[in-house]
Amino acid sequence: MAKIGVPGGTPSERESPAVSVAGSAVPRHVAIIMDGNGRWAKAHGLPRFEGHRRGVEAVRRTVSAARDLGIEAVTIYSFSSENWSRPLAEVSELMGLLKRFIRSDLRDLHANNVRVRIIGEGHPGDSEIETMLRETEVITRGNTGLRLTVAFNYGSRNEIARAVQGLARDVAQGRLTPDDITPERIAERLDTAELPPLDLVIRTSGEQRLSNFLLWQAAYAELVFLPVHWPDFDRAWFEKALSEYSRRERRFGGIEPDGC
Ligand code: IPE
Ligand code: IPE
Ligand code: MG
């Protein structure tokens, strides 16, 4: 029988609420849906591409702030599996920006002890991007600072389907039985398996949806939606989101120890 007052969630999720920095709870793992580049550009009378270009600067600010704030892991949504449906010219611009970002920033990220990982399905049709992504991971593999995960050609439903396909193969080959397919085993096969449990999802631009991002991992994450377009996101906005997070009461399905 379930014990009333014992919080639910997996043990690692319950351990997750993090250390205290400057007197407030700091999340271990923050995921960011970097949205609003196009609207930012439109509001400034500029082409959408300029919004994406300015968005890269916001990524740099975010990485630097996360390191200062003592956050262990940041996962950023850079391109969704649905973003292929955008006009070809915009998709090409986004791919070009990714390549330029790796070329210009990899050295700095590495020097700052950032460990970069790519999740999602990569770009099987573009061997140059594939090579750059894999090299980025290899070069920074031994780093012990901020864990920066870039979700690229990522879709959560695909990720879960890939995980379950792997388990189904194990069942078909007799290595597992159907009863072995537990939430823990699925989580172990997700792209995020090595990362700490997700504590906080931030989405900029005012939209309030997950858009196929970390659906499984966000089961008990706090969600913070900010009324700022991504190119204007800075340390002050990051701190605002963290301060909102620190006021949230995470229950994981249980109740507070005092029963209120
Ligand atoms: C986010 O900004 C960047 C990507 C999705 C790649 P958008 O391009 O979605 O900007 P809006 O939502 O149109 O303003
Ligand atoms: C989500 O933003 C994807 C990224 C930020 C990379 P979108 O702009 O693609 O999401 P929707 O279409 O508004 O849901
Ligand atoms: Mg958008």
TrEMBL record:
Binds 2 magnesium ions per subunit. Substrate binds at residues 36-40, 48, 52, 80-82, 84, 86, 203, 209-211. Keywords: Magnesium, Metal-binding, Transferase. Mg(2+) binds at residues 35, 222. The active site is at 35, 83 (proton acceptor). Transmembrane segments: none annotated. The keyword Magnesium applies. This is Isoprenyl transferase. The lineage of its organism: Bacteria, Pseudomonadati, Pseudomonadota, Alphaproteobacteria, Hyphomicrobiales.
